[in-house]
Amino acid sequence: MKAVRIHEFGGPEVLRYEDVADPQCRKDQVLVRVKACAMNHLDIWVRKGLPGVKLPHILGSDIAGEIVEVGEYVSGFKVGQRVLLAPMHFCNHCAKCTAGLQNQCREYTVVGNLVDGGNCELIAAPAVRVIPIPDALDFNQAASVPLVFLTAWHMLVGRAGIHPGQTVLVLGANSGVGIAGIQLAKFFNCRVITTAGDDRKMAKAHELGADHVINHYKQKISEEVRSITNKEGVDIVLEHVGPATWEESLKSLKLGGALVTCGATTGPHVGIDLRFVYSRQLSVLGSYMGTMGELHEALKHVFSGTLKPVVDRTFPLAEARQAHEYMEKSQMFGKIVLNP
Ligand SMILES: [Zn+2]
In angstroms, what is the span from residue 214 Cα to ligand 1's centroid? Predict the structure, then answer.
C-alpha cells in the first residue's frame, strides 16, 4: 500500500509518500481501507520528534474508512461497512481499561503517536476501536470528529464537571478542540466566550454558537472577560495554547473556577503564582484524550447532528507535505483532512 512515513524528525520535507507492506489483519482485528485521515497538531509534534516514536513511522490519528476484512474472532461487523476508528491504543485487559478508564492505561497512546497511524491506505484495528458511522456523515466529516470531540468532552464533562448555566471561556475558536468545545459548552446550555485572531474566524465562531468572541490580537482576554461577565470571571477555561495565553486564562477565572488544559501549542512551561491560585481557590486540571465511554457518548450527539464537525480543507495523501505546511500557517478554521 501507499503510506506517508517519516524516517527522521524535522520539517514537512521529512514526509515521504512511499510503498510499504500491507498490514496483516489479526484474527481479533478488523482491516479498514482508509478513506480519510484528519490532521491534528499532534502530527506536527510527532513529525518534529517526540520521545518514544520509532522510525520509520506513519502519522495520523483520526481515521474513517470502509471495512475490507473481518478477523475470525470478530463478530458484529461486515465487509463494506463505513466506520471510524477510536484514535487511541490501549491494552483492553488491565484494571483501568476494564473499568472504562482507557486513558489511564499504562499502554495508552494516541494512534499515530507511539503506534503507527492512518496516513496510509489500509490499517488493522481491534474491534473495540471500530465504530460504525451513519450515512449522513461523509468520510471527511467522520474523520474530523474523534480526537477533538473526545478531548473536549473529557475536558469539560469528565474533568471540569460542566453544568448548565455556567460561563465557559474556550481558547482558539478555529482549532479543532475549540470548535468542539464551543459546541459542547452550548450543548450544556452554558454561556460561551471564545477567542479568534481575525474577523473571518470571529464570524465563524459566532456561527458555531459562541456568545462572545474576543480578538486575541487586539484585545486583552482577561479584561474582555471581566467586562463581559460583570467583573465575575468564568467558571471554566478550556486551555490548549500554553504560555501565550496561560496568564490571561488564569486571570479570567472566577473565584473557585477551573482551568482545564489538554495542550501546549506555544510551549510546555508556564508560571503560576501560588498566592493567586490558593486565595482564589482555583483548580488547574490536566486532561488527556478520554475514554471509550466518553467517545461513544460524544459520538451519539455527532451522529444525531447536534454536534457538527467542521472540515476546512482536504488534500490527497500524496500531498501530505503541503497539508503540513498549510497547518503550520494556522489559517484554517476546522480540520485538514488527507485522502489516500
Ligand atoms: Zn489497559
Answer: 41
- With a cut of 90, say whether residue 327 has pLDDT above it: yes
Alpha-carbon distance values, 229 to 120, 172, 217 (Å): 47, 19, 20
Name 264's Cβ contacts closer than 8 Å, sequence gap at least 6. Answer: 240, 242, 243
d(CA 294, CA 218) in angstroms, rounded, equals: 36
* Cα 149 to averaged position of ligand 1 atoms, centre (Å): 22
Cα 292 to averaged position of ligand 1 atoms, centre (Å): 12
pLDDT digits (tens, 9 = 90+) for 230-262: 999 999 999 999 999 999 999 999 999 999 999
Rg of the Cα atoms in the chain: 20
Ligand 1 center to 91 CA (angstroms): 4
Alpha helices in 92-236 (DSSP H): 95-98, 139-143, 146-153, 176-187, 199-207, 221-228
Question: Residue 284 belongs to what H/E stretch?
Answer: strand 283-286
CA of 92 to the centre of ligand 1 (A): 5
- Please tell me the distance between residue 129's alpha carbon and the centre of ligand 1 in angstroms: 13
Global pTM? 0.96
Distance, CA 68 to ligand 1 centroid (Å)?
27
